[in-house]
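Ticket #4471: structure output looks truncated?

Reporter: J.K.
Steps to reproduce: submitted the chain below (85 residues) through the standard prediction queue, then opened the result file.
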Amino acid sequence: MSRARIYTTRFCPYCIHAKQLLQQKGADFEEIPVDGDRAMRAKLVEMSGGSTTVPQIWIGETYVGGCDELVALERRGELNALLAQ
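Returned output as attached by the reporter:
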């Protein structure tokens, strides 16, 4: 199973929702908090191709995007396959 990385902030409802979905799937994930870390936020913007929001999610080496994109993968039935890689 691919390991996920999720960049979050503490009180972000979208971050919480994305983590809950990954937990429901039994996914192994690393949470990387970026609260108040300006250098990490700048790096995250660069890594994500310009996105300034959280969460930002990678599954294995695949950039998923944010919570909406993660939920869309689940609705299309594609999340399990991505996690299984």
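Triage note (M.O.): checked the attachment and the full token line is present. The CA atoms of residues 65 and 83 lie 15 Å apart.
Status: closed, working as intended.
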